[in-house]
Design goal:
CATH topology: Rossmann fold
Order of helices and strands: HHHEHEHEEHEHEE
Strand order of the largest sheet: 3-2-1-4-5-7-6
Number of strands: 7
CATH class: Alpha Beta
CATH architecture: 3-Layer(aba) Sandwich
Structural class: alpha/beta
Number of domains: 1
Largest sheet: 7 strands, mixed
Number of helices: 7
Helix content: 25-40%
Length: 232
């Protein structure tokens, strides 16, 4: 084959070679970048929507040692406290009594029935320092730079996107604010979540673990974690 024949052959093959290269390069780039489907979201439990009065069972104060919990969260008169996943308002009313009229307790829930229940309860118990917030699942919608302490009581395992929630919570916290999480060990969809998972997710959201206790209920399953926002 002479040079002219080779040149004509290459000109004919040129478009085909370009097309093949275009098909191969993206695949190679994808392989090198290691891009893949996003990791599967961990399991969470379906938020409770049943009878709210069950949370006010006699003896719950003693089982959860709620006064000790409030002590460790530094809750005192004049402070602003948040109850995320407030449910029946069981913790809300106890925190409201602790902070007195000079403080405020924000009862946050995504369930309209829970918000209505707490509003009626606050009126009945004449607690004017309770403010309810019907929030979205990922944002507690709190005023900025205003919160001294937060408690998620048996709620964290129901949060679908906990890292997003914790990040959205951050802007509402005062310097040194404490975030308490009480839950039980589980696999996510059995109304519990591993303590190690909570610590890891909180760290990803910008928080550091300051204390870990297991005195709540004393059943060896429940835990009480205290976090603070990491310094900038």
């Amino acid at each position: 084959m002479n040079c002219k024949s080779i040149g004509r052959a290459l000109r004919c093959l040129g478009p085909i070679l370009v097309l093949l290269a275009g098909l191969c390069v993206p695949a190679a780039i994808r392989a090198q970048s290691g891009s893949a489907a996003p990791p599967e979201q961990r399991k969470t439990s379906t938020p409770y929507t049943g009878d709210l009065s069950i949370f006010d069972a006699p003896g719950r104060d003693e089982r959860l040692q709620i006064n000790r919990v409030m002590d460790m969260l530094g809750i005192e008169p004049g402070q602003n406290v948040v109850d995320i996943g407030a449910g029946s308002g069981w913790f809300t009313v106890r925190a409201a009594l602790r902070v007195t009229r000079s403080g405020t307790v924000y009862a946050v829930d995504i369930n309209p029935e829970a918000i209505q229940y707490i509003d009626q309860r606050a009126k009945k118990e004449q607690l004017q320092n309770i403010k309810t917030i019907l929030s979205t699942p990922d944002d507690p919608q709190l005023p900025p730079d205003s919160i001294d302490a937060v408690l998620l009581l048996k709620t964290y395992h129901e949060v679908a996107h906990p890292i997003v929630l914790l990040r959205n919570l951050s802007s509402s916290l005062k310097p040194g604010a404490r975030i308490g999480i009480i839950d039980r060990n589980g696999n996510g969809d059995n109304h519990g979540v591993s303590k190690d998972v909570v610590v890891r997710e909180a760290a990803q959201a910008g928080y550091e673990l300051r204390d870990s206790q297991d005195f709540v209920k004393g059943d060896g399953m429940d835990y009480f974690l205290i976090f603070r926002r990491k310094p900038n």
